[in-house]
Design brief:
The complex is a heterodimer of chains A (143) and B (310). Chain A is mostly helical and 143 residues long. Chain A contains six helices and no strands. Classes of the chains: A mainly alpha (143), B alpha+beta (310).
């Protein structure tokens, strides 16, 4: 787990509340509230391009895309070590987070499909996926 | 690394945004809000980089060779609200008109292309009902055996119900057999979930992976094994493939298709192993071959092929 144990539930609840606040702020910029179908990776890529183009803004860390444009070498061993560690982290995921995360990240199911499968609301799936991402991020920091 | 040692709430917000960006219900407002958040504080970017890196790595780690067996079955039984939701997705979900019937007669194999691009291969003596709609894809296996090759649809899972159990698949290839209260699921590619609760009642999900077979007996006991695929899927090509199979089982398989039933005269023969590859409709060739393997006579009697001496 993370260096210090976090009350993850409470942190995430607050985090989603902040997220909601940013959505409200964004609404002032007249962003429409309709579903979009752009793949997430293209959004991330676009975001990185944006950040590169605007010099005042630092680019996102390269780890956004593992190994992309980075010379290999010792990094192969390093990557293996990190993947091993991530496997251990996956095995330690709290169960309710693990199920939703696995179905989404590994099986490629949408939140809606997962909600249907597990009989839980889509928003709960999202919360559980976020919980898993938070856990794994904290876990990977221990590298 | 960047992002290390950040206060926890930055990481929590980054995780929330990442989960939202991966949602199929994500809106343009979410994306605009995300950009605002990202620009608001450099630590937001660091945190998002950290969480995204872990996300990417987790995909790579889990997608690698299986290094451990993970169980997904021990999921806690859900609360009352969730149970109601499962019921809505279960019993009520299935009580809907608009089914199309498909049946095969004795010895008949039928290939059924479905509207969503999936393909259904229906074995001899089987009956299924199919419902294909914009928001649902469901097949009810009433009797017999069917092979499914389901097309991917990110919005709708493919649901199969057999012997009161729900099977749930994205893009996958699998066989389902329902006979006498027994359910057998053999996954060839992808993975298929089995909801262990009967008739849409709440129950944990067991995920069956490629090359695994799950069998549930009438008592509800679940067994998982990894048999050799070739004998199990030979019927897709109109063939039977036996590798040291007990004569009783081999005859049962041939009789699913045979015009003239094959009988075993001597009960002692029933457990003897036989091998070979046969056309499913060719009972006589099968009978001659196994009689030779077992060094017993074969004869025709009253429209049946009898193996062995009574």
């Amino acid at each position: 787990m993370a260096p210090k144990r976090m009350p993850a539930e409470r942190l995430l609840k607050a985090a989603f509340a902040r997220l909601e606040a940013y959505r409200v702020k964004a609404a002032a910029h007249a962003a429409a509230d309709y579903p979009v179908r752009m793949p997430v990776h293209s959004l991330q890529g676009e975001m990185r391009r944006d950040l590169h183009e605007r010099e005042s803004v630092r680019p996102l860390p390269d780890m956004l895309r593992l190994g992309e444009g980075v010379p290999l070498r010792d990094e192969i061993a390093e990557t293996h070590r990190r993947l091993e560690r991530m496997r251990a982290g996956l095995a330690k995921l709290p169960r309710r987070n693990a199920e939703a995360f696995r179905l989404h990240r590994i099986e490629g199911m949408s939140y809606r499909q997962i909600g249907h499968t597990l009989g839980i609301p889509t928003r709960t799936v999202e919360r559980q996926v976020a919980g898993a991402a938070l856990f794994l991020a904290s876990w990977s920091e221990g590298c | 690394m960047a992002g290390a040692g950040l206060p926890a709430h930055f990481k929590a917000e980054a995780a929330a945004w990442l989960a939202r960006l991966h949602s199929d219900e994500r809106t343009a407002r979410d994306e605009a809000g995300f950009r605002l958040w990202l620009a608001a504080d450099p630590r937001n970017r660091d945190a998002f980089g950290l969480v995204t890196g872990a996300w990417d790595e987790a995909g790579g780690a889990a997608g690698g060779p299986p290094v451990r067996v993970r169980r997904w079955t021990r999921r806690r039984v859900l609360g009352a609200g969730a149970a109601a939701a499962i019921l809505a997705g279960g019993a009520g979900f299935w009580a809907h008109a608009g089914w199309e019937d498909y049946r095969t007669g004795h010895g008949e194999l039928r290939r059924i292309p479905l509207a969503d691009g999936s393909v259904l291969l229906l074995d001899s003596g089987s009956a299924v009902r199919v419902e294909m709609a914009a928001d649902r894809r469901r097949v009810m296996v009433d009797r017999g055996r069917a092979h499914f090759r389901t097309a991917n649809d990110s919005r709708n899972l493919f649901f199969v119900r057999a012997e009161g159990r729900d099977l749930i698949a994205g893009a996958a290839s699998f066989d389902v057999a329902a006979e006498g209260g027994r359910l057998s699921l053999f996954v060839l590619a992808g993975s298929v979930g089995i909801r262990l609760g009967r008739d849409g009642l709440p129950g944990s999900m067991r995920w069956v992976r490629a090359r695994e077979r799950a069998r549930i007996d009438p008592g509800g006991a679940l067994r998982i094994d990894s048999p050799a695929p070739a004998p199990l899927v030979a019927w897709h090509d109109g063939e039977a493939f036996f590798a040291a199979t007990r004569l009783r089982g081999a005859v049962a398989e041939m009789n699913r298709y045979a015009r003239h039933p094959i009988l075993i005269a001597d009960p002692d023969l029933a457990v003897r192993p036989v091998s070979g590859r046969f056309d499913l409709g060719d009972g006589p060739a099968f009978a001659r071959s196994v009689a030779r393997q077992l060094s017993v006579p074969v004869h025709v009697q009253g429209g049946s092929i009898v193996i062995g001496r009574a």
